[in-house]
Design brief:
The chain has about 350 residues and is α+β, with helices and mostly antiparallel strands. The chain has 3 domains: about 55-125, Dna Ligase, domain 1; about 130-215, no CATH class; about 235-350, no CATH class. It has 12 helices and 6 strands. The protein has helices spanning about 20-50, 70-75, 85-95, 115-120, 140-145, 155-160, 195-215, 225-240, 245-260, 265-275, 310-315, 340-350; strands spanning about 55-60, 105-110, 125-130, 185-190, 325, 335. A 4-stranded antiparallel β-sheet has the order 1-2-3-4, covered by helices on one side. α6 (about 155-160) packs across α7.
Length: about 350
């Protein structure tokens, strides 16, 4: 008798509501990602709106030309925001500033980023102005630069500089002349500083650098006083066009003073006559205490401001026997000589090149 076998049927149904292993993995992973995303979102919101409220007041200076990235870093360093990177992303996402106006911002530590963005859009409470004073400028030319700043007056600056209200520690007793006693540098001025305050800033900076160089304490050549050395440094600054010439020109000045020779420096004549770029033979006869072709020794005051390098050069001139120099190339390099015949040969070469 043959056994009858039922044909195979479909597998029994799985219990309803039970996931496959693959489904469990999928939904488990999704849950983890949601938790991570939620945690990241909470963390990000805490960076944007930190808890605890604003902290201590803080003044943040933003200098001209600072990028938005640089501003964000400064704000993080001062504790105003929690993260410079997130703040940059926040500004980009919210249509924040592409640039920030220079000045002083009155902020607080631990501020919401929205408040910081609003403060940057309003602008600084105190605005900065950049004053750049190059080397070899006279007091009047420095005043011209001050007068070019918004709300500043050339005449008020000169009046303040000549009033005697501001003095340098290196200024001779009884003198109200600050020529050569304002340091060439770049200054960030606030709108609260008037012309007298600007003069004070420049003079204070000069005194600081002169102290650092050692003018008051170091051995000075030729027995010069501190002020006389500053006068001599201004001659170096006015004559030297390339850095390597400074100590050599200083040595010529020092050697001539030691020998009792007239300095015969063109820059002093130009200072005496003013408003010219080149000395003519007739100018050498000008009747002025600044004409070192007619008068012995140094002029009575500096003829320009002097940078650190020229002050140092005059304090420590090169050890040479040079007593002459003349322009040697169009870049401003000088050639130096010990004897009159060498000097005449150098002058002839300079004439051949069209330099003098």
């Amino acid at each position: 008798m043959t056994d009858v076998v039922d044909p195979p049927g479909p597998p029994p149904d799985r219990p309803k509501g039970r996931l496959t292993r693959r489904g469990r993995i999928f939904f488990g992973t999704l849950g983890v990602l949601l938790i991570i995303g939620l945690g990241a979102g909470v963390w990000l919101l805490k960076q944007i709106n930190p808890s605890g409220g604003p902290g201590e007041k803080v003044a943040v200076d933003i200098l001209p030309g600072t990028s938005v990235a640089g501003v964000a870093t400064r704000l993080e360093d001062e504790g105003v925001i929690t993260s410079a990177r997130i703040f940059r992303l926040y500004l980009k996402a919210t249509g924040g500033a592409n640039s920030v106006q220079a000045g002083e911002y009155e902020l607080s530590e631990n501020l919401p980023m929205g408040d910081v963005r609003a403060a940057l859009r309003r602008g600084p409470s105190i605005k900065f102005q950049r004053l750049t004073v190059p080397e070899a400028l006279t007091l009047e030319k420095i005043a011209d630069r001050v007068g070019e700043l918004p709300g500043r007056s050339r005449d008020k600056f000169l009046a303040a500089a000549r009033s005697g209200e501001v003095r340098s520690k290196y200024q001779p007793p009884g003198s109200t002349n600050l020529e050569g006693l304002l340091f060439p540098d770049t200054y960030m001025l606030t709108d609260k500083e008037d012309e007298t305050a600007i003069v004070r800033r420049l003079v204070s900076r000069f005194d600081q650098v002169a102290d650092e160089v050692g003018i008051a304490t170091a051995d000075r050549p030729n027995g010069l006083s501190a002020y006389q050395l500053i006068v001599a440094a201004s001659l170096v600054e006015s004559e030297a066009k390339v850095h390597e010439d400074r100590t050599l020109i200083a040595s010529v000045i020092s050697n001539r003073l030691e020998k009792g020779m007239k300095l015969q420096i063109d820059a002093t004549v130009l200072y005496a006559i003013g408003h010219k770029d080149r000395v003519l033979y007739k100018d050498l006869e000008v009747d002025s205490p600044y004409n070192t072709y007619r008068n012995d020794g140094l002029p009575p005051t500096p003829i320009s401001d002097s940078g650190r390098a020229s002050l140092e050069a005059m304090l420590r001139p090169a050890d040479t026997t040079y007593i002459y120099y003349v322009l040697a190339d169009k870049n401003g390099k000088h050639a130096f000589a010990t004897t009159a015949s060498e000097f005449e040969a150098l002058k002839a070469e300079a004439r051949r090149k069209g330099l003098i």
